[in-house]
Design brief:
The protein is of the alpha+beta class. It is built from six helices and ten strands; from the N terminus they run E-E-E-H-H-E-E-E-E-H-E-E-H-H-H-E. The termini are close together.
Length: 256
């Protein structure tokens, strides 16, 4: 698997996103920025969680390549939780959390997992684009803007939404599936700092994937920043966010 990626923090902030990749896999994580004044019960910050979660997942993908993705992600969440259970209150629903999106090549199959709002787009051999998304965070009761209390009460709960944090069972609530590698020519994994192009500024997914394929992920981040400067952000939204994208391709079987 050939992976090009780019990541840029929101201006003036530390990056809470992460990309990790190997010869047959790639994953993107987007740590959730805590709301001001929220007590997480954890002595660690979001980048700590994202780095340790990404490291644990990478070890699993490298050493257990045939294991199902939900099981690998669950093990990574448990390993990360074990690393700070003795110092932090992991029962706190505001404990640091992250989205997690994984694509893995396994023989002729492409396995994928999407947990929370960092979607994936598969470009098919005919040019069409299939979007794999976990949109439960966009469908909470009452509509946006959500209150802090509502989000807190529905995080990692049935009927709410699921993220990678302290509960390994969240991995088994992710959106998962497989595609035949011969039917896919490329895959884009992106955090919501990049998918603002689609969600806020009306760019079609097919065009976003086309930019990634032709000009690389960094070009997408440039488009996001330009759109933010020109059009601004919706009410109650951050004017800028960390923006991360990975574009994965693979040679045809004949080229191997």
């Amino acid at each position: 698997m050939l992976v090009a990626h780019a990541s840029q923090p929101a201006p003036g902030r530390r990056n809470e996103d992460l990309v990790i990749s190997g010869s047959t896999w790639v994953a993107v994580l987007d740590g959730a920025t805590p709301s001001p004044g929220v007590e997480s019960g954890c002595v660690h910050d979001v980048p700590w969680l994202v780095a340790h979660l990404g490291g644990a997942l990478a070890r699993g993908l490298l050493t257990r390549p045939e294991e199902k993705l939900p099981d690998l992600v669950a093990a990574a969440i448990e390993e990360t939780a074990a690393g700070h259970r003795h110092t932090c209150d992991l029962a706190n629903p505001d404990s640091p959390s992250s989205t997690l999106t994984v694509l893995r090549e396994r023989g002729d199959a492409l396995d994928y997992l999407v947990l929370c709002d960092s979607p994936m787009a598969l470009r098919r051999t005919g040019g069409e684009v299939t979007v794999v998304a976990d949109d439960r965070l966009d469908r909470l009761p009452g509509g946006k803007p959500y209150t802090r209390e509502l989000v807190r009460s529905l995080r990692n709960r049935a009927g709410g939404f699921w993220v990678a944090s302290t509960r390994p069972e969240a991995a088994h609530e992710a959106v998962t599936g497989s595609a035949h590698r011969a039917t896919v020519t490329g895959a884009l994994l992106a955090t919501d700092g990049v998918t603002r192009l689609i969600d806020w500024y009306g760019t079609p997914w097919r065009d976003v994937v086309g930019v990634a394929a032709a000009d690389g992920p960094a070009a997408l981040i440039g488009l996001v920043r330009a759109a933010e400067r020109e059009h601004g952000a919706p009410a109650h939204a951050k004017p800028h966010d960390d923006a991360t994208a990975a574009w994965a391709t693979w040679p045809s079987p004949q080229a191997r």
